[in-house]
Design brief:
This protein is mainly beta. The protein has strands at about 10, 15-20, 25, 30-35, 40-45, 45-55, 55-60, 65-75, 80, 85-95, 105-110, 110-115, 120-130, 135-145, 150-155, 160-165, 175-185, 185-190, 200-205. The relative contact order is 0.23.
Length: about 210
C-alpha cells in the first residue's frame, strides 16, 4: 500500500487498485471513504474494516501492538558453571514493573563454550525464569559416537532462547526475568577471554 494523503493516493490490494486525490466522500465501487484530508476508511457491506490516519491504523483484524519500553543488560563477566543443578548466570537479570495488560518478549543470548572431560556426551542448558517460574529453555550438546578414548570434548557456540510471556502482573508489582544454567558434566563457560558478551533483553509489548 502506497499512501500520499497530501497529493494523490495510490491504494492496491483492496478490491483492485484505486488512485484518488485527497478529497472527502465515499467511492461507491470500493467502499473507501475519505472523511478528511488525513484519514481514509475502508468498508465492506456498510461495516468499517480499517481506518488509516495520522495517528495510526485501526479496525477489525488490525494488530496495534506497540513496544512500550525496552530493558537490556549485557555482561562480559567470565563464569565457570560446573553444577548439574541450575545456578544464576552473573549479571543476566532484569526487574521491571509492567502494565497490567502488556506482555513481555524476553530474549536471552549466552555466549561462551563448554568442555567435557572423559565422556562422549555433554549437555548445557539455560533457562529463562519469570520470578521463580521457568518459562523458556535453551540447550546445546555434543556427542561423539565411537569407541576411542578421549581427553576432552570442547565446543564453542551460542545458546539463545526467546519467549513472549504473559506476566500476569497488575501494573503495580514488579517482575524479574533472569537466566540460569547448568551442565551435566565438566564446564559451561559463560563468555571468554575474546571479548564476548552475553545479554538479556525484555521488550514490554502493548496488547493488540
Amino acid at each position: 500500500m502506497a499512501l500520499n494523503i497530501n497529493g494523490t493516493t495510490g491504494i492496491s490490494g483492496v478490491d483492485g487498485s484505486v488512485s484518488a486525490p485527497a478529497v472527502t466522500g465515499t467511492d461507491s465501487n470500493t467502499g473507501i471513504t475519505f472523511p478528511s484530508a488525513d484519514t481514509i476508511k475502508f468498508s465492506t457491506g456498510g461495516v468499517e474494516r480499517m481506518q488509516i490516519s495520522n495517528s495510526g491504523v485501526s479496525g477489525t483484524g488490525v494488530s496495534n501492538g506497540k513496544i512500550l519500553e525496552v530493558h537490556h543488560v549485557s555482561s562480559t563477566t567470565h563464569q565457570d558453571v560446573t553444577s548439574s543443578s541450575y545456578v544464576d548466570l552473573t549479571n543476566l537479570s532484569i526487574t521491571l514493573t509492567p502494565a497490567a495488560t502488556s506482555k513481555c518478549f524476553v530474549l536471552l543470548v549466552v555466549n561462551g563454550y563448554f568442555e567435557h572431560q572423559n565422556t562422549f556426551f555433554g549437555t548445557n542448558k539455560i533457562q529463562i525464569l519469570r520470578d521463580s517460574t521457568e518459562i523458556a529453555l535453551g540447550m546445546r550438546g555434543i556427542r561423539l559416537d565411537n569407541s576411542m578414548s578421549i581427553n576432552y570434548l570442547q565446543t564453542q557456540s551460542t545458546i539463545s532462547s526467546a519467549i513472549l510471556d504473559t506476566h500476569g502482573k497488575d501494573g503495580s508489582t514488579s517482575v524479574t526475568y533472569k537466566a540460569r544454567g547448568l551442565t551435566n558434566h565438566g564446564h559451561m563457560y559463560v563468555n571468554t577471554s575474546y571479548n564476548t558478551q552475553s545479554s538479556i533483553t525484555v521488550y514490554e509489548v502493548a496488547p493488540n
